[in-house]
Specification:
25% of the residues lie in helices and 29% in strands. The protein is α+β, with helices and mostly antiparallel strands and 523 residues long. It has a seven-stranded antiparallel beta sheet. Strands 8-9-10-13-12-11 form a six-stranded antiparallel β-barrel.
Protein backbone atom coordinates (compact mmCIF):
# COMPACT_ATOMS: atom_id res chain seq x y z
CA UNK A 1 0.00 0.00 0.00
CA UNK A 2 2.85 2.38 0.81
CA UNK A 3 4.46 1.79 -2.56
CA UNK A 4 1.23 2.60 -4.39
CA UNK A 5 0.91 5.91 -2.62
CA UNK A 6 4.49 6.74 -3.47
CA UNK A 7 3.92 5.97 -7.14
CA UNK A 8 0.77 8.15 -7.16
CA UNK A 9 2.64 11.13 -5.72
CA UNK A 10 5.44 10.68 -8.30
CA UNK A 11 2.82 10.74 -11.07
CA UNK A 12 1.22 13.93 -9.77
CA UNK A 13 4.65 15.55 -9.52
CA UNK A 14 5.36 14.66 -13.15
CA UNK A 15 1.98 16.14 -14.19
CA UNK A 16 2.79 19.48 -12.55
CA UNK A 17 6.09 19.61 -14.39
CA UNK A 18 4.37 18.89 -17.69
CA UNK A 19 1.74 21.60 -16.99
CA UNK A 20 4.42 24.15 -16.21
CA UNK A 21 6.27 23.28 -19.39
CA UNK A 22 3.04 23.66 -21.42
CA UNK A 23 2.27 27.08 -19.93
CA UNK A 24 5.77 28.32 -20.63
CA UNK A 25 5.56 27.09 -24.22
CA UNK A 26 2.23 28.88 -24.72
CA UNK A 27 3.65 32.18 -23.46
CA UNK A 28 6.63 31.94 -25.77
CA UNK A 29 4.40 31.26 -28.80
CA UNK A 30 2.11 34.20 -27.88
CA UNK A 31 5.02 36.61 -27.64
CA UNK A 32 6.31 35.52 -31.03
CA UNK A 33 2.88 35.95 -32.70
CA UNK A 34 2.44 39.43 -31.15
CA UNK A 35 5.79 40.58 -32.44
CA UNK A 36 5.02 39.37 -35.98
CA UNK A 37 1.58 41.04 -36.10
CA UNK A 38 2.93 44.29 -34.69
CA UNK A 39 5.59 44.31 -37.34
CA UNK A 40 3.07 43.80 -40.10
CA UNK A 41 0.85 46.60 -38.80
CA UNK A 42 3.79 48.94 -38.67
CA UNK A 43 4.65 47.99 -42.21
CA UNK A 44 1.08 48.64 -43.32
CA UNK A 45 1.08 52.10 -41.72
CA UNK A 46 4.27 52.87 -43.42
CA UNK A 47 3.03 52.04 -46.90
CA UNK A 48 -0.50 53.89 -46.58
CA UNK A 49 -4.07 52.87 -47.51
CA UNK A 50 -4.12 50.81 -50.73
CA UNK A 51 -7.80 51.61 -51.56
CA UNK A 52 -10.96 49.53 -52.07
CA UNK A 53 -13.10 48.36 -54.93
CA UNK A 54 -16.21 50.26 -53.58
CA UNK A 55 -17.97 52.85 -55.80
CA UNK A 56 -18.18 56.43 -54.39
CA UNK A 57 -21.59 57.97 -53.70
CA UNK A 58 -22.76 61.14 -55.52
CA UNK A 59 -25.45 63.72 -54.68
CA UNK A 60 -28.22 63.33 -57.29
CA UNK A 61 -30.11 66.21 -58.91
CA UNK A 62 -32.99 67.43 -56.66
CA UNK A 63 -36.38 65.92 -57.47
CA UNK A 64 -39.45 67.28 -55.63
CA UNK A 65 -40.93 64.63 -53.38
CA UNK A 66 -44.41 66.01 -53.99
CA UNK A 67 -45.56 68.28 -56.79
CA UNK A 68 -48.83 69.27 -55.06
CA UNK A 69 -47.99 70.97 -51.74
CA UNK A 70 -44.53 72.19 -52.79
CA UNK A 71 -45.88 73.91 -55.90
CA UNK A 72 -48.59 75.65 -53.89
CA UNK A 73 -46.15 76.85 -51.25
CA UNK A 74 -43.76 78.19 -53.89
CA UNK A 75 -46.54 80.29 -55.42
CA UNK A 76 -48.16 81.63 -52.25
CA UNK A 77 -45.42 81.85 -49.63
CA UNK A 78 -43.64 84.89 -51.16
CA UNK A 79 -46.84 86.90 -50.56
CA UNK A 80 -47.10 85.95 -46.88
CA UNK A 81 -45.56 88.47 -44.47
CA UNK A 82 -44.60 88.61 -40.83
CA UNK A 83 -46.20 91.44 -38.85
CA UNK A 84 -44.63 92.77 -35.64
CA UNK A 85 -46.55 95.35 -33.62
CA UNK A 86 -45.64 97.51 -30.66
CA UNK A 87 -48.22 98.93 -28.30
CA UNK A 88 -47.13 101.55 -25.79
CA UNK A 89 -49.01 101.26 -22.52
CA UNK A 90 -49.31 103.97 -19.90
CA UNK A 91 -48.28 103.09 -16.38
CA UNK A 92 -51.17 102.32 -14.05
CA UNK A 93 -51.74 104.81 -11.27
CA UNK A 94 -52.04 103.68 -7.69
CA UNK A 95 -55.73 103.31 -6.86
CA UNK A 96 -55.14 104.75 -3.40
CA UNK A 97 -53.62 107.94 -4.71
CA UNK A 98 -56.03 108.15 -7.64
CA UNK A 99 -58.86 109.17 -5.32
CA UNK A 100 -56.91 112.15 -4.01
CA UNK A 101 -56.12 115.46 -5.72
CA UNK A 102 -52.74 115.60 -7.41
CA UNK A 103 -50.41 117.87 -5.44
CA UNK A 104 -47.05 118.55 -7.04
CA UNK A 105 -45.75 120.21 -3.84
CA UNK A 106 -46.47 117.19 -1.64
CA UNK A 107 -43.16 115.36 -0.95
CA UNK A 108 -45.09 112.15 -0.28
CA UNK A 109 -46.60 112.42 -3.76
CA UNK A 110 -43.12 112.03 -5.25
CA UNK A 111 -42.52 109.03 -2.98
CA UNK A 112 -45.65 107.31 -4.24
CA UNK A 113 -44.83 108.28 -7.82
CA UNK A 114 -41.39 106.70 -7.70
CA UNK A 115 -41.98 103.60 -5.63
CA UNK A 116 -45.62 102.72 -6.13
CA UNK A 117 -45.97 103.32 -9.87
CA UNK A 118 -48.29 106.24 -9.30
CA UNK A 119 -47.30 108.66 -12.03
CA UNK A 120 -49.61 108.80 -14.99
CA UNK A 121 -46.86 110.58 -16.91
CA UNK A 122 -44.22 108.00 -15.99
CA UNK A 123 -42.23 106.14 -18.63
CA UNK A 124 -44.59 104.17 -20.89
CA UNK A 125 -44.37 100.41 -21.17
CA UNK A 126 -44.10 98.62 -24.54
CA UNK A 127 -46.00 95.45 -25.35
CA UNK A 128 -45.03 93.53 -28.49
CA UNK A 129 -46.88 90.89 -30.47
CA UNK A 130 -46.52 88.97 -33.70
CA UNK A 131 -48.89 88.00 -36.47
CA UNK A 132 -49.09 87.30 -40.18
CA UNK A 133 -50.63 88.85 -43.27
CA UNK A 134 -51.02 88.25 -46.98
CA UNK A 135 -50.23 90.72 -49.76
CA UNK A 136 -53.22 91.06 -52.10
CA UNK A 137 -52.10 94.09 -54.12
CA UNK A 138 -48.63 94.56 -55.63
CA UNK A 139 -48.60 98.15 -54.37
CA UNK A 140 -48.33 96.91 -50.79
CA UNK A 141 -51.89 96.38 -49.55
CA UNK A 142 -52.03 93.58 -46.99
CA UNK A 143 -54.96 91.67 -45.48
CA UNK A 144 -54.61 90.63 -41.84
CA UNK A 145 -56.62 90.41 -38.62
CA UNK A 146 -57.79 93.45 -36.72
CA UNK A 147 -56.59 91.92 -33.44
CA UNK A 148 -53.07 91.75 -34.89
CA UNK A 149 -52.85 95.53 -35.38
CA UNK A 150 -55.45 96.76 -32.91
CA UNK A 151 -54.19 99.66 -30.74
CA UNK A 152 -50.68 99.22 -32.15
CA UNK A 153 -48.38 102.21 -31.83
CA UNK A 154 -46.06 100.86 -34.50
CA UNK A 155 -46.63 98.19 -37.16
CA UNK A 156 -43.66 96.66 -38.95
CA UNK A 157 -43.85 94.21 -41.84
CA UNK A 158 -41.13 91.79 -42.88
CA UNK A 159 -41.34 90.27 -46.35
CA UNK A 160 -40.60 86.61 -46.91
CA UNK A 161 -36.87 86.00 -47.23
CA UNK A 162 -35.90 89.57 -46.32
CA UNK A 163 -34.42 91.02 -43.16
CA UNK A 164 -35.57 94.60 -43.74
CA UNK A 165 -38.73 95.79 -42.02
CA UNK A 166 -41.26 98.21 -43.50
CA UNK A 167 -43.42 100.48 -41.38
CA UNK A 168 -47.08 99.96 -42.20
CA UNK A 169 -50.11 102.18 -41.76
CA UNK A 170 -53.66 101.06 -41.18
CA UNK A 171 -55.99 101.70 -44.12
CA UNK A 172 -59.09 100.51 -42.27
CA UNK A 173 -60.43 97.84 -39.93
CA UNK A 174 -63.65 95.95 -39.38
CA UNK A 175 -64.13 94.81 -35.80
CA UNK A 176 -67.20 92.72 -36.64
CA UNK A 177 -65.20 90.35 -38.85
CA UNK A 178 -61.82 90.97 -37.17
CA UNK A 179 -60.25 91.95 -40.49
CA UNK A 180 -57.89 94.82 -41.26
CA UNK A 181 -56.14 96.28 -44.29
CA UNK A 182 -52.67 97.76 -43.86
CA UNK A 183 -50.24 99.20 -46.41
CA UNK A 184 -46.47 99.38 -46.81
CA UNK A 185 -44.39 101.39 -49.28
CA UNK A 186 -41.65 99.07 -50.54
CA UNK A 187 -40.84 101.08 -53.70
CA UNK A 188 -41.20 97.93 -55.81
CA UNK A 189 -43.87 95.60 -57.07
CA UNK A 190 -44.61 92.94 -54.49
CA UNK A 191 -45.70 89.32 -54.97
CA UNK A 192 -49.40 88.77 -54.36
CA UNK A 193 -51.65 85.85 -53.48
CA UNK A 194 -54.89 85.29 -55.34
CA UNK A 195 -58.09 85.16 -53.31
CA UNK A 196 -60.45 82.38 -54.33
CA UNK A 197 -64.13 81.65 -53.72
CA UNK A 198 -64.59 79.93 -50.39
CA UNK A 199 -68.16 78.94 -51.28
CA UNK A 200 -66.75 76.08 -53.35
CA UNK A 201 -64.78 74.55 -50.46
CA UNK A 202 -66.07 71.23 -49.18
CA UNK A 203 -65.59 69.51 -45.84
CA UNK A 204 -62.67 67.12 -46.27
CA UNK A 205 -60.76 69.26 -48.79
CA UNK A 206 -57.01 69.59 -48.24
CA UNK A 207 -55.78 73.04 -47.18
CA UNK A 208 -52.48 74.64 -46.15
CA UNK A 209 -51.97 77.27 -43.44
CA UNK A 210 -49.02 79.60 -44.00
CA UNK A 211 -47.74 82.13 -41.49
CA UNK A 212 -45.38 82.86 -38.60
CA UNK A 213 -46.49 80.79 -35.59
CA UNK A 214 -44.53 81.81 -32.49
CA UNK A 215 -42.54 84.13 -34.76
CA UNK A 216 -41.24 81.27 -36.93
CA UNK A 217 -41.49 82.79 -40.39
CA UNK A 218 -42.60 80.91 -43.52
CA UNK A 219 -44.09 77.98 -41.62
CA UNK A 220 -46.47 75.71 -43.55
CA UNK A 221 -48.92 73.24 -42.04
CA UNK A 222 -51.41 70.97 -43.78
CA UNK A 223 -54.85 69.66 -42.88
CA UNK A 224 -58.40 69.47 -44.10
CA UNK A 225 -61.54 71.56 -43.84
CA UNK A 226 -63.28 69.93 -40.89
CA UNK A 227 -66.45 72.08 -40.91
CA UNK A 228 -68.01 75.04 -42.72
CA UNK A 229 -70.15 77.99 -41.68
CA UNK A 230 -69.13 77.61 -38.05
CA UNK A 231 -70.76 80.27 -35.90
CA UNK A 232 -70.91 81.03 -32.22
CA UNK A 233 -67.13 81.48 -31.97
CA UNK A 234 -66.75 85.24 -32.35
CA UNK A 235 -68.90 88.19 -33.35
CA UNK A 236 -72.26 88.19 -35.09
CA UNK A 237 -70.81 88.52 -38.58
CA UNK A 238 -68.11 85.89 -38.13
CA UNK A 239 -68.86 82.56 -39.83
CA UNK A 240 -65.75 80.42 -40.02
CA UNK A 241 -64.14 77.68 -42.03
CA UNK A 242 -62.95 75.13 -39.47
CA UNK A 243 -59.69 73.29 -40.13
CA UNK A 244 -57.33 70.84 -38.45
CA UNK A 245 -54.29 72.39 -40.14
CA UNK A 246 -52.08 73.49 -37.27
CA UNK A 247 -52.79 77.14 -36.38
CA UNK A 248 -50.89 78.68 -33.48
CA UNK A 249 -50.31 82.17 -32.03
CA UNK A 250 -48.60 84.15 -34.78
CA UNK A 251 -50.62 82.48 -37.57
CA UNK A 252 -53.36 85.10 -37.16
CA UNK A 253 -53.87 87.04 -40.38
CA UNK A 254 -52.10 84.48 -42.55
CA UNK A 255 -53.76 82.67 -45.47
CA UNK A 256 -55.55 79.33 -45.61
CA UNK A 257 -54.85 78.01 -49.10
CA UNK A 258 -56.59 75.33 -51.20
CA UNK A 259 -54.90 72.93 -53.63
CA UNK A 260 -55.50 75.37 -56.48
CA UNK A 261 -53.10 77.75 -54.74
CA UNK A 262 -55.86 80.27 -53.94
CA UNK A 263 -56.50 81.87 -50.57
CA UNK A 264 -59.88 80.66 -49.33
CA UNK A 265 -59.60 81.97 -45.77
CA UNK A 266 -57.77 84.27 -43.35
CA UNK A 267 -56.60 82.34 -40.27
CA UNK A 268 -58.12 84.02 -37.25
CA UNK A 269 -58.73 81.90 -34.15
CA UNK A 270 -58.15 78.62 -32.36
CA UNK A 271 -59.90 76.71 -29.62
CA UNK A 272 -57.38 75.29 -27.18
CA UNK A 273 -57.07 74.21 -23.60
CA UNK A 274 -53.57 75.64 -23.50
CA UNK A 275 -51.89 78.17 -25.75
CA UNK A 276 -51.18 76.21 -28.90
CA UNK A 277 -52.58 73.86 -31.49
CA UNK A 278 -55.09 71.22 -30.46
CA UNK A 279 -56.63 70.38 -33.80
CA UNK A 280 -59.35 73.04 -34.13
CA UNK A 281 -58.63 76.30 -35.96
CA UNK A 282 -60.81 78.85 -37.70
CA UNK A 283 -60.41 81.00 -40.80
CA UNK A 284 -62.68 83.74 -42.10
CA UNK A 285 -63.93 82.76 -45.59
CA UNK A 286 -62.38 84.59 -48.54
CA UNK A 287 -65.81 85.77 -49.72
CA UNK A 288 -66.16 87.69 -46.46
CA UNK A 289 -62.60 88.98 -46.69
CA UNK A 290 -63.08 90.24 -50.26
CA UNK A 291 -66.25 92.13 -49.34
CA UNK A 292 -64.60 93.75 -46.32
CA UNK A 293 -61.40 94.57 -48.23
CA UNK A 294 -63.26 96.22 -51.12
CA UNK A 295 -65.28 98.43 -48.78
CA UNK A 296 -62.23 99.46 -46.77
CA UNK A 297 -60.11 100.47 -49.78
CA UNK A 298 -63.04 102.37 -51.31
CA UNK A 299 -64.42 104.20 -48.28
CA UNK A 300 -62.12 103.45 -45.36
CA UNK A 301 -64.74 101.54 -43.40
CA UNK A 302 -67.34 98.80 -43.69
CA UNK A 303 -70.99 99.73 -43.96
CA UNK A 304 -73.74 97.28 -43.03
CA UNK A 305 -77.44 97.68 -43.32
CA UNK A 306 -79.87 97.32 -40.44
CA UNK A 307 -83.53 97.85 -39.69
CA UNK A 308 -83.06 97.97 -35.91
CA UNK A 309 -84.35 94.64 -34.60
CA UNK A 310 -82.59 92.46 -32.03
CA UNK A 311 -82.92 88.77 -31.19
CA UNK A 312 -81.04 85.78 -29.79
CA UNK A 313 -80.51 82.87 -32.14
CA UNK A 314 -81.57 79.89 -30.04
CA UNK A 315 -84.61 81.22 -28.16
CA UNK A 316 -85.78 83.21 -31.18
CA UNK A 317 -85.83 80.13 -33.43
CA UNK A 318 -87.09 77.63 -30.85
CA UNK A 319 -89.68 75.39 -32.60
CA UNK A 320 -91.91 75.23 -29.53
CA UNK A 321 -92.01 79.02 -29.28
CA UNK A 322 -92.67 79.42 -33.00
CA UNK A 323 -95.50 76.87 -32.88
CA UNK A 324 -97.13 78.66 -29.96
CA UNK A 325 -97.05 81.91 -31.96
CA UNK A 326 -98.58 80.29 -35.03
CA UNK A 327 -95.42 80.40 -37.17
CA UNK A 328 -94.03 77.38 -39.07
CA UNK A 329 -90.58 78.97 -38.96
CA UNK A 330 -89.01 82.40 -38.52
CA UNK A 331 -87.15 84.56 -36.02
CA UNK A 332 -88.89 86.07 -33.01
CA UNK A 333 -88.00 89.74 -32.51
CA UNK A 334 -87.05 90.54 -28.94
CA UNK A 335 -86.60 94.28 -29.31
CA UNK A 336 -87.02 97.16 -31.74
CA UNK A 337 -84.63 100.11 -31.53
CA UNK A 338 -86.46 103.42 -30.93
CA UNK A 339 -86.63 105.54 -34.07
CA UNK A 340 -85.32 102.68 -36.21
CA UNK A 341 -86.67 101.67 -39.66
CA UNK A 342 -88.31 98.64 -38.03
CA UNK A 343 -90.23 100.85 -35.59
CA UNK A 344 -91.28 103.14 -38.42
CA UNK A 345 -92.48 100.09 -40.35
CA UNK A 346 -94.69 99.09 -37.42
CA UNK A 347 -92.75 96.09 -36.11
CA UNK A 348 -92.88 95.27 -32.40
CA UNK A 349 -91.19 92.94 -29.97
CA UNK A 350 -92.78 89.49 -30.15
CA UNK A 351 -93.38 89.62 -33.91
CA UNK A 352 -92.05 86.67 -35.92
CA UNK A 353 -90.28 87.63 -39.17
CA UNK A 354 -90.76 84.76 -41.61
CA UNK A 355 -89.33 86.19 -44.86
CA UNK A 356 -87.16 88.99 -46.25
CA UNK A 357 -87.79 89.99 -49.87
CA UNK A 358 -89.77 86.78 -50.34
CA UNK A 359 -87.02 84.45 -49.09
CA UNK A 360 -87.81 82.30 -46.03
CA UNK A 361 -86.19 83.19 -42.72
CA UNK A 362 -85.29 80.04 -40.79
CA UNK A 363 -82.09 81.15 -39.08
CA UNK A 364 -80.66 84.38 -37.74
CA UNK A 365 -78.39 84.64 -40.79
CA UNK A 366 -81.40 84.41 -43.10
CA UNK A 367 -82.68 87.60 -41.46
CA UNK A 368 -79.43 89.48 -40.92
CA UNK A 369 -77.43 88.82 -44.09
CA UNK A 370 -79.80 90.13 -46.79
CA UNK A 371 -80.40 93.30 -44.78
CA UNK A 372 -76.73 93.81 -43.87
CA UNK A 373 -75.75 93.45 -47.54
CA UNK A 374 -78.51 95.71 -48.87
CA UNK A 375 -77.55 99.26 -49.96
CA UNK A 376 -78.22 101.94 -47.37
CA UNK A 377 -81.49 103.65 -48.23
CA UNK A 378 -82.92 100.70 -50.16
CA UNK A 379 -86.14 99.05 -49.06
CA UNK A 380 -86.77 95.49 -47.94
CA UNK A 381 -90.12 93.68 -47.84
CA UNK A 382 -90.82 91.81 -44.63
CA UNK A 383 -93.39 89.17 -43.87
CA UNK A 384 -94.14 88.64 -40.21
CA UNK A 385 -96.68 87.03 -37.91
CA UNK A 386 -98.42 88.83 -35.06
CA UNK A 387 -101.25 87.34 -33.01
CA UNK A 388 -101.16 84.28 -35.29
CA UNK A 389 -101.98 86.46 -38.31
CA UNK A 390 -99.62 87.07 -41.23
CA UNK A 391 -98.77 90.67 -42.03
CA UNK A 392 -96.42 92.54 -44.39
CA UNK A 393 -94.31 95.65 -44.05
CA UNK A 394 -91.67 97.60 -45.96
CA UNK A 395 -88.67 99.03 -44.14
CA UNK A 396 -85.90 101.32 -45.36
CA UNK A 397 -82.42 99.95 -44.66
CA UNK A 398 -80.36 102.19 -42.40
CA UNK A 399 -76.66 102.33 -41.56
CA UNK A 400 -76.08 99.93 -38.68
CA UNK A 401 -73.74 102.36 -36.91
CA UNK A 402 -76.53 104.92 -36.87
CA UNK A 403 -79.34 102.54 -36.04
CA UNK A 404 -77.35 101.13 -33.09
CA UNK A 405 -75.04 104.05 -32.20
CA UNK A 406 -74.14 102.67 -28.77
CA UNK A 407 -73.04 99.23 -29.95
CA UNK A 408 -72.14 99.37 -33.63
CA UNK A 409 -69.54 102.13 -33.72
CA UNK A 410 -68.89 105.84 -33.34
CA UNK A 411 -70.90 108.33 -35.33
CA UNK A 412 -67.74 110.38 -35.66
CA UNK A 413 -66.46 107.73 -38.06
CA UNK A 414 -69.24 108.34 -40.60
CA UNK A 415 -68.49 109.98 -43.97
CA UNK A 416 -68.99 113.72 -43.79
CA UNK A 417 -68.73 113.69 -39.99
CA UNK A 418 -64.99 113.19 -39.56
CA UNK A 419 -63.86 114.00 -36.05
CA UNK A 420 -61.31 116.85 -35.92
CA UNK A 421 -57.71 115.66 -35.63
CA UNK A 422 -56.30 115.93 -32.13
CA UNK A 423 -52.84 114.50 -32.77
CA UNK A 424 -52.85 112.26 -29.69
CA UNK A 425 -53.95 115.11 -27.39
CA UNK A 426 -56.77 114.69 -24.90
CA UNK A 427 -58.04 118.04 -23.65
CA UNK A 428 -60.67 119.29 -21.23
CA UNK A 429 -62.13 122.63 -20.26
CA UNK A 430 -59.86 124.62 -17.94
CA UNK A 431 -62.41 125.17 -15.18
CA UNK A 432 -61.46 127.24 -12.09
CA UNK A 433 -61.24 124.02 -10.05
CA UNK A 434 -58.91 122.34 -12.55
CA UNK A 435 -56.90 125.55 -12.86
CA UNK A 436 -56.37 125.59 -9.09
CA UNK A 437 -55.30 121.92 -9.06
CA UNK A 438 -52.65 122.36 -11.74
CA UNK A 439 -51.49 125.79 -10.60
CA UNK A 440 -53.01 127.69 -13.54
CA UNK A 441 -55.45 129.92 -11.67
CA UNK A 442 -56.82 132.76 -13.80
CA UNK A 443 -55.49 131.33 -17.09
CA UNK A 444 -57.62 130.80 -20.22
CA UNK A 445 -57.30 127.84 -22.55
CA UNK A 446 -57.80 124.07 -22.62
CA UNK A 447 -56.06 121.65 -20.28
CA UNK A 448 -54.07 118.72 -21.69
CA UNK A 449 -55.11 115.68 -19.62
CA UNK A 450 -53.31 112.98 -21.62
CA UNK A 451 -50.70 112.68 -24.37
CA UNK A 452 -50.76 109.43 -26.33
CA UNK A 453 -47.32 107.81 -26.66
CA UNK A 454 -45.68 107.92 -30.12
CA UNK A 455 -48.26 110.45 -31.35
CA UNK A 456 -47.67 113.79 -33.10
CA UNK A 457 -48.35 115.56 -29.79
CA UNK A 458 -45.72 113.40 -28.09
CA UNK A 459 -43.24 114.28 -30.84
CA UNK A 460 -43.90 117.98 -30.18
CA UNK A 461 -43.13 117.39 -26.47
CA UNK A 462 -46.58 118.12 -25.07
CA UNK A 463 -47.02 117.14 -21.45
CA UNK A 464 -49.88 116.36 -19.11
CA UNK A 465 -50.96 119.57 -17.38
CA UNK A 466 -50.06 121.88 -20.28
CA UNK A 467 -52.58 124.59 -21.16
CA UNK A 468 -53.11 125.42 -24.85
CA UNK A 469 -54.00 129.08 -25.33
CA UNK A 470 -53.49 129.57 -29.08
CA UNK A 471 -53.27 127.49 -32.28
CA UNK A 472 -51.65 129.29 -35.21
CA UNK A 473 -52.42 132.59 -33.51
CA UNK A 474 -56.08 131.76 -33.01
CA UNK A 475 -57.14 132.24 -29.38
CA UNK A 476 -58.37 129.10 -27.63
CA UNK A 477 -60.50 129.56 -24.52
CA UNK A 478 -62.67 126.42 -24.67
CA UNK A 479 -62.77 122.89 -26.09
CA UNK A 480 -65.09 124.19 -28.81
CA UNK A 481 -62.47 126.78 -29.80
CA UNK A 482 -59.79 124.10 -29.79
CA UNK A 483 -61.76 121.73 -32.03
CA UNK A 484 -62.63 124.56 -34.41
CA UNK A 485 -58.97 125.50 -34.72
CA UNK A 486 -57.58 122.00 -35.29
CA UNK A 487 -60.29 121.19 -37.80
CA UNK A 488 -58.80 123.84 -40.09
CA UNK A 489 -55.37 122.19 -40.11
CA UNK A 490 -54.33 120.30 -43.24
CA UNK A 491 -51.70 117.67 -43.97
CA UNK A 492 -48.26 119.20 -44.44
CA UNK A 493 -49.30 122.56 -42.98
CA UNK A 494 -47.22 124.28 -40.30
CA UNK A 495 -48.88 124.40 -36.90
CA UNK A 496 -47.79 126.38 -33.83
CA UNK A 497 -49.32 125.81 -30.39
CA UNK A 498 -48.92 128.45 -27.71
CA UNK A 499 -48.68 126.57 -24.44
CA UNK A 500 -48.46 127.48 -20.77
CA UNK A 501 -46.50 125.06 -18.59
CA UNK A 502 -46.05 125.20 -14.83
CA UNK A 503 -42.62 124.45 -13.40
CA UNK A 504 -41.91 122.99 -9.96
CA UNK A 505 -40.89 126.45 -8.78
CA UNK A 506 -44.45 127.64 -9.40
CA UNK A 507 -43.32 129.65 -12.40
CA UNK A 508 -45.53 129.44 -15.50
CA UNK A 509 -43.58 129.22 -18.74
CA UNK A 510 -44.85 130.23 -22.17
CA UNK A 511 -43.81 127.72 -24.85
CA UNK A 512 -44.38 127.47 -28.57
CA UNK A 513 -44.58 123.87 -29.79
CA UNK A 514 -44.53 123.63 -33.55
CA UNK A 515 -44.29 121.14 -36.41
CA UNK A 516 -45.82 120.02 -39.68
CA UNK A 517 -49.19 118.29 -39.57
CA UNK A 518 -48.56 114.63 -40.49
CA UNK A 519 -50.79 112.64 -42.80
CA UNK A 520 -51.26 109.86 -40.25
CA UNK A 521 -51.69 111.99 -37.13
CA UNK A 522 -53.60 110.07 -34.47
CA UNK A 523 -57.12 111.30 -34.19
Amino acid sequence: MGEQVKELMDWARRRKVLAAVFVAFTLVVGILIGSIVSGRVSATKGFGFSGTTATALTVPDPIPASNSFAGIVNRVEPAVVNIATTQVLERKQSKKRRTQPYDQDDPMQDFFDRFFDGRQDGPPQAERSLGSGVIVDKRGYILTNNHVVEQATKIQVQLNGETARYTAKVVGVDEDTDLAVIKIDANKELPIAKLGNSDGVQVGDWVLAIGSPFGLQATVTAGIISAKDRGGIGHQFQRFLQTDAAINPGNSGGPLVDLAGEVIGINTAIITGGRGYEGVGFALPSTTAINVYDQIIKQGRVTRGSIGVSFQEEPSTNPITLKSLGAPYGVVIEGVEPGSPAEKAGLKGGDVITSVNGKPVKTGNDLVNPIAQAPIGSKVKLTYIRDRAQKEATAEVGDRTRVFPNTAGRLGDQPGETAPPEFGLHVEELTPERGHRVGMEGQKGVLVTEVEPASFADDLNFGRGDVITQINGEVVTSVADYRKAVTKLKHGEDVVFKVLRRQDSDRVLTLYLSGKVPADAQQ
